[in-house]
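Priority: medium. Attachment 1 of 2:
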């Protein structure tokens, strides 16, 4: 530091020690267009950026999720390695150590509960007949395994009771209600809740749907069952709904939504997370559940992130933010 001689300003033309001299603005000390001015300006900017980086780093470290804070759900019971929504897929999800299996339940023409995603049979070789227009016997004649792989030949569309029995204490179930309209929405909710209660699995199941009225019916019948609304787009403030969790597309699952939902005791579940590169940003955003067709791949990435040191996690988080 030493002594500083001022070439301009309102002080007498003599030297002052830096300890006693009032601090003038930079341009008053050295001139606005001199090389010294620009050197000192660059130095001041670097100091400011360093301070800001340290502040942001502290905030990021504090916000990093704790280990094992993210659960993994097998989408349609795990559609990557077995035919979706089948007993084979559920068994594979158990082997892959998924925490949950998400399955789709509908009513048939004879009022049986079947586990199937599409509302008609076209994709499984049964033509454009709607599920609610076919009987259980008709539906279970279809071989849904061979079109996936010869390894799964003769795999059939299961009933909800069969899925409950196979899941048992091995895996939890996130049951999506798929009513065909207002005419069967309440009946479907009632039948599904009754089946869960009969299997003594209220504590191992949760209910989700795009039908909010169905979720309200579930809430009235069995308050102990967690309910979640499925949203493909952001329409209004979904955290105002009377639910326990929100299932949203992965591109909507950001920290702002997570924090807004957390204030209402609602957790965020992101779907469908099949790209391991999505895990880091969703993990740091505070998402509670990753719904994926490939549980083992996503589980491996979560474990990789959990194994990083705090500094490595910070670097990864900053890199993801800058992308």
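Attachment 2 of 2:
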């Amino acid at each position: 530091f030493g002594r500083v001689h001022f070439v301009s300003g309102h002080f007498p033309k003599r030297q002052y020690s830096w300890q006693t001299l009032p601090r003038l603005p930079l341009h008053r000390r050295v001139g606005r267009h001199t090389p010294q001015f620009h050197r000192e300006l660059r130095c001041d900017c670097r100091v400011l950026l360093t301070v800001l980086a340290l502040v942001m780093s502290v905030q990021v470290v504090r916000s990093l999720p704790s280990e094992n804070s993210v659960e993994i759900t097998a989408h349609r019971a795990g559609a990557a390695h077995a035919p979706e929504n089948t007993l084979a897929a559920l068994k594979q999800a158990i082997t892959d150590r998924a925490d949950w299996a998400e399955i789709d339940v509908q009513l048939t023409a004879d009022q049986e509960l079947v586990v199937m995603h599409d509302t008609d049979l076209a994709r499984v070789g049964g033509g454009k007949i709607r599920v609610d227009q076919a009987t259980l016997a008709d539906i279970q004649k279809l071989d849904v395994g061979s079109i996936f792989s010869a390894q799964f030949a003769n795999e059939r569309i299961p009933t909800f009771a069969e899925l409950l029995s196979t899941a048992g204490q091995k895996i939890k179930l996130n049951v999506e209600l798929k009513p065909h309209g207002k005419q069967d929405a309440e009946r479907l909710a009632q039948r599904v809740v009754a089946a869960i209660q009969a299997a003594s699995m209220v504590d191992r199941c949760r209910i989700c749907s795009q039908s909010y009225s169905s979720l309200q019916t579930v809430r009235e019948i069995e308050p102990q069952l967690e309910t979640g609304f499925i949203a493909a787009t952001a329409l209004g403030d979904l955290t105002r709904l009377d639910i326990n969790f929100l299932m949203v597309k992965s591109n909507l699952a950001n920290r702002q939504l997570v924090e807004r939902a957390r204030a209402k005791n609602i957790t965020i579940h992101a779907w469908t997370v099949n790209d391991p590169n999505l895990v880091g940003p969703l993990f740091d955003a505070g998402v509670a559940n990753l719904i994926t067709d490939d549980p083992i791949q996503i589980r491996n990435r979560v474990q990789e992130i959990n194994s990083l040191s705090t500094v490595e996690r910070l670097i990864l988080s900053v890199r993801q933010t800058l992308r």
